[in-house]
Amino acid sequence: MAFGFFSKKIEDMLPGKVSTDKEDLFCYGFDASSSEGAPSAVVRPAGAAEVSEAAAYAFKNNIPIIPRGAGTGMTGGSVPLNDTVILSLEGMNRIIDIDEKNMVAIVEPGVINSHLQEKLDETGLFYPPDPASMKFCTLGGNVAENAGGPKAIKYGVTKDYVLGLETVLPDGRVLMTGGKTYKGVVGYDLTRLLVGSEGTLGIITKIFLKILPLPEEIVTMLCTFSRLGDAAQTVGRITSSGIIPRALEFMDAESIRAVENYRPFGLPRNAEALLLIEVDGAHATVSEEAEKVASICASLNGDISIADDVYSKQRLWEARRAISPALYHIKPTKINEDIVVPRGKIPEMLHALREIAETHDLLIANFGHAGDGNIHVNVMTDKEDEEGYQRAAGSIKDIFEAALKLGGTISGEHGVGITKKQYVGMELSDVSIEIMKAVKSVFDPKGIMNPGKIFPSD
Hints:
By secondary structure, the chain is an alpha+beta fold. The chain is 36% helix and 21% strand. Strand 17 and strand 18 (374-381) form a beta hairpin.
């Protein structure tokens, strides 16, 4: 079917909700990865009924569709391949209900993560998953990618907070899974299956989220090290001490210098590494844990300081969240991977990354959620430098092999999308991939829902 005809039919069904303007198509053709595509149309539904109507028509006419939030994904999950239609959910951005009695928030997929955080803060509550892009990313996208964030070490990731979902299936039918209850074991757990499915099984139109009371107190500490190995050892010492930090973030020397050159925050430029550590809870407990953490850092040659006011805390976190944009001032192209290894293997992984950088003659900047072993590996390069870019691209397999050798995974929170799908077979067995494809075919028998993602090409 010609896409012009499709667009006209959808426009008749959903007046004012369809665009084929070149400017719109360009804006919806890329995400935060380096991948690009060109959709044939953009549909902006206002609610589940319109999503269902558009999906049913696309299914009937074999038109591929891609659900999309804010386009902040790092692996090309919302980038269109071939002739596809973008179903943009950014306009479905209502916080439907905050049920303080049952500690549940009900939201539409287009709600920005930080907007929910701010609304909850007014009521003394919070939603723990807080990716670095929280000021821009949508909760629907967070669910699709099973996003994490700094607080994951103590509080878990998105899947630990999704109690239920309303999802439009590729043929337009509406599937309701879970709801407001914290428990439920009737049948298969389809909610958990849909979380992290990257828009390949259906279109999320409503989300039920578990929320928590704000802790009484939060202590934020910065610990700097003159030796990378000491910082890595400190992570293991803290996590094995009986303390579960609220956050335990890591930055290496390249990341520190990039941030300070981009926007000076007062981080020590001569440090080999730093840890941003937070503990939270009741007043008495937090003070005791903060002292214990400070003692551990000092025992491994760390120089520790405590943020003593709200401004200081915010400034440290602004520095942490500034890393990604700052790195683009080193090189115009960044290949960003988010490997995970067991926490005790972090020193070995960082050593392996240094060897890979030297072998391929590359600049690799590392930072991330050291508390749960999640390292964001940033291979800095320039797409215009063909030889250099090939060396950078060639290092990715080595990075993944090193992580897997240490018992890790090739993706902790960014998903697979299109940038990692060629490497999936390194981690998953043929049996696993076969079963996943079978599940996909049950939900999406025509293969029209976000095609070409996750699975390696045959």
